[in-house]
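In the previous chapter we treated chains in isolation. Here, by contrast, the input contains four separate entities that must be folded as one system, with a combined length of 1364 residues.
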Amino acid sequence: MLSFENDYSEGAHEKILQRFLETNFVQVPGYGNDPYSESAKEKIRAACQCPQAEIFFLTGGTQTNAVVIDSMLQAYEGVVSAQTGHVNAHEAGAIEYTGHKVMPLPQYDGKMKAEDLESLLKTFWQDESHEHMVFPGMVYISHPTEYGTLYTKQELTDLSAVCRRYHIPLYLDGARLGYGLMSRQTDVTLPDIAELCDVFYIGGTKVGALCSEAVVFTKNNMPKYFLTHVKQHGALLAKGRLAGVQFDTLFTDNLYFEISKHAIDMAELLKQGLAEKGYPFFIDSPTNQQFIILEDEKMETLKEQVRFCFWEKLDDTHTVVRFATSWATPEENIRKLMELL
Amino acid sequence: MLSFENDYSEGAHEKILQRFLETNFVQVPGYGNDPYSESAKEKIRAACQCPQAEIFFLTGGTQTNAVVIDSMLQAYEGVVSAQTGHVNAHEAGAIEYTGHKVMPLPQYDGKMKAEDLESLLKTFWQDESHEHMVFPGMVYISHPTEYGTLYTKQELTDLSAVCRRYHIPLYLDGARLGYGLMSRQTDVTLPDIAELCDVFYIGGTKVGALCSEAVVFTKNNMPKYFLTHVKQHGALLAKGRLAGVQFDTLFTDNLYFEISKHAIDMAELLKQGLAEKGYPFFIDSPTNQQFIILEDEKMETLKEQVRFCFWEKLDDTHTVVRFATSWATPEENIRKLMELL
Amino acid sequence: MLSFENDYSEGAHEKILQRFLETNFVQVPGYGNDPYSESAKEKIRAACQCPQAEIFFLTGGTQTNAVVIDSMLQAYEGVVSAQTGHVNAHEAGAIEYTGHKVMPLPQYDGKMKAEDLESLLKTFWQDESHEHMVFPGMVYISHPTEYGTLYTKQELTDLSAVCRRYHIPLYLDGARLGYGLMSRQTDVTLPDIAELCDVFYIGGTKVGALCSEAVVFTKNNMPKYFLTHVKQHGALLAKGRLAGVQFDTLFTDNLYFEISKHAIDMAELLKQGLAEKGYPFFIDSPTNQQFIILEDEKMETLKEQVRFCFWEKLDDTHTVVRFATSWATPEENIRKLMELL
Amino acid sequence: MLSFENDYSEGAHEKILQRFLETNFVQVPGYGNDPYSESAKEKIRAACQCPQAEIFFLTGGTQTNAVVIDSMLQAYEGVVSAQTGHVNAHEAGAIEYTGHKVMPLPQYDGKMKAEDLESLLKTFWQDESHEHMVFPGMVYISHPTEYGTLYTKQELTDLSAVCRRYHIPLYLDGARLGYGLMSRQTDVTLPDIAELCDVFYIGGTKVGALCSEAVVFTKNNMPKYFLTHVKQHGALLAKGRLAGVQFDTLFTDNLYFEISKHAIDMAELLKQGLAEKGYPFFIDSPTNQQFIILEDEKMETLKEQVRFCFWEKLDDTHTVVRFATSWATPEENIRKLMELL
């Protein structure tokens, strides 16, 4: 059955699998000390135009968020997130499991506003009894957000400025970063992110890899003994080459960006088709996730022929659903979907 | 350079990589609900002769130990382990990070004795103030142990009997289980383990996979909402196929056992060679890890030509080192090593 | 200086101190196994008309909330609270420190609505991906709330019914329970609370004791080995008599209720005086905490003569402040305050 | 019935109770910002000859150990303790609950040897794979130990020197510190401890107070926002005066030392009596805890007339029991006990 359920339904880009085969019997040290990981890090530093970047490979968004947030916060600090942030809503309490509160702010199309953030920070520090409360110790944003939306460069700059004024790090969750960077409606580049954020991750799992995400610390601020933190969280790969080979391949010859662009091209085709057929959009998303509103009856019929993702009930007779394209979506599938709709 | 440093220096068995290629563009659901995972579980149940077994795939020994132990223990319980148990010594405090004490018992060639365990449990429950202490809530053993040694079927049966008498689960860490099962000196089979243990894992990372371990709950005792526990620990793979394809391949046509047998054959060759050349053994290991005692000078010379693992200082002039074979060790490498020694 | 800053500015009711003196040299067992604790528990059971109640004494609201919530929740569960709930706002992340999320609901004068709760629970269980989210595992309410307001018996009954429908416990934080029970505008009695809630605590620290709160489990639902949970949280008193003597005295001859009534009488005098002088109230509180709106200039002048509690900035020129009466407030102090205002 | 069960069977020194009465209605700020706490801190600083000492009052040994250790350690660090250390054996896993491993060393009459400590630290840092293990981040000793024994000044100096060489703090658990300082066989003074340790606590609960212990940070090393750490652990008293009044009284006119001396005098009487009657000692304790070996039959008879503490089974027919004196033991009780024995 045709599936637009998510962007992790297929395996990995074939060049990655080929590279696994080619390098398979080279004996290399474990725990990330292999030449593939080293090479991948060099290429990522170059792509970020951030030669001092410290990079570590982890597996999956929830793991990455938990390890980064827990290792960068003091025990008495929490992390500020838009209410719809993945860490607040869809990670089974993995952040609270590490002992830290997620401090929610209002969301606007999935995004946090710099003025809301500033207000929270100002109110906290002005409150005479703030030592009895959770200290806001880090800001978490996702880009693209859970709704597929993107921060503008100005918005990122403003958030970054507030963070610096209050001496707390800005952390960007880039689970779908490639799709954000290759959106036709963005003015944000990878070097911008490296400059404006203190730490971020480049998602691999949803952008062509079987697994693995690259955490990038941009300001010589990787926590001391980070490998030990990672191991303590059960997140250290014995065969670090698994991540290394994947990211080395993705950052060779622009592959990460090209396959991300393909997903965006497919999303734009899909978007155009949906618009032409008169499906109402729930939100205007410039990336690979498209949210439309379906009558429940229509939805039930459609379910028999194509897989998509239930998002939320809108009212008694309508539902918001998500269609996602990815690096692996063939153009033919878009055409087939259009016929079904 | 020739390496006998460990059993995770190479990638994965080529049949696994081939299978990745073959299945790469099949669209499947995430989080372990894919057909490859289902098929792998069926095959593992059959190999264990345990049709009711509940199986979950995780990544890496430390992660697996932390998730299994934390999700099966009550908050006030700890896990009993031989002093040399991996959870007690080499996992960066990952168990304590989840809030549970590792309660050490004396070790004999890396193994725990049933009488020591019984004595600890008896003493605990007889102590009138035991509510002020950590409750022993689970027993952890590794098989093969960190020293490459193996429990006999009688020893396992005795440990299991003590656990049942005190109503606590027996957990077996099988990071290198294949090498244990194919040892020439064992009377323990996979079905024995499934019968005598309440939970155990079949290690993939060190036995032919790129990553992934299969946790097997044998007594209808998988913790409720285990997937949520796993996600909360940051251990849930979005692309569950990564584990599924690997274990499905390993448990097809006996592959897991055949490649394990190869490692044992290589270890026996190595052992014989070492003995012939007069190297003293630190311990008599019947599996793929061989521990010998080297004069420090000899060790320094050898280091320039072959990679092996520092184990511990024996005295001022001698060091214990480890040579490991694996599923990937070519017979030629053993010959080359023999020439060097 | 005159102080209405809070309800914990004085020591303890003198009858408690006298009882310390009388019992001081009686040798009794530790950890709560003393006759004073036993007697106090009997009296509390009688006052609650709940003969099967299991009771444990802890110290302070934050400690009590953390121990109760952590010991009653499964690892993957969180606690639902009104956004203004003490556990969500003013406990330095003590709940998250134990690994559990506080799941906020809208507040109405500090209270949670049964329909909001039902909606959250229904939405959670209907969501197909709920195993990726935090399970709502308990409901936390405070009575009186942080704003001094009270649930009606009907409101409590409705919340209780929702909790039972979804099989999760209802927990009532009674840090100021005495003041709630003796309010002139309540129809809720202590036996009502024991019937409708699954667990609650009777606050001592703010109602006449030096420290100590009495946790009451009403449904034979005290977590197994609760003493060990308590000790693990560092909350077990060696000299359990400290709590026992205090609660035994408070629940002898109705003392807890009489001194609470006194605080309410004082609060009503204060309220009447403030109203007569035309001070606008921020909220209509029927208990010992009164919130009024002051012009900032007026506030600064007043600060020099009387201590009160900053609550929050209302706008650029006005501030909400709190005046609290207590068991210890002399009527004379109300008169003095009225002269100042 | 006569009781020598422990040193917390009575209430508090009467001067403390009198002081509660005298100060009861003085209105003071909460959370330790009261004048009694300030005065107590000044007096403790003077007694320690450590004018820069930072002091915080907590309640109970387990709570104090958990808060101090957790707030001073990095996430990847554990605390080194003699195997018999209270944190390792009798605190229900309260340290592990905070995420940190207790790293046991051999004990000699309850004490740790500097050379064992040095060896552990040296081995750790020399091990090439130490980033995969728990970092030893603090040393915990108790003085008196759980066996009533004491470190000599030389032993403390040696431990302190090792700690400084490895840049980790030395923490002394002084639950019974008064009894240690007033022992007839010690050369260690309170200023010695303040100089040699980085942090320690002066026990109140077992030395004349109802509750409360005074944590002393001696090297300007109190963790930042320590009050917030304390609150997060549920350990912050609203009525800080409860601790303040107690310690202010104990450190006025040498009271803490005088009542400790009384306990020692009683212990020496007891010891002499036991020796004269030919009871074999299990260990030679110079403080208020005396351990003797009883035939099981004798023990059962004795139990009917006097309370003492079961310590451990020695063999099939003998048991080690503990008799404890305290600040509250009347000389008459020693005489009565001697008649019974």
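The mean pLDDT of chain D is 97. The domain at 14-250 of chain D is CATH 3.40.640.10 (Aspartate Aminotransferase; domain 2). Compare these points with the single-chain example from earlier in the chapter.
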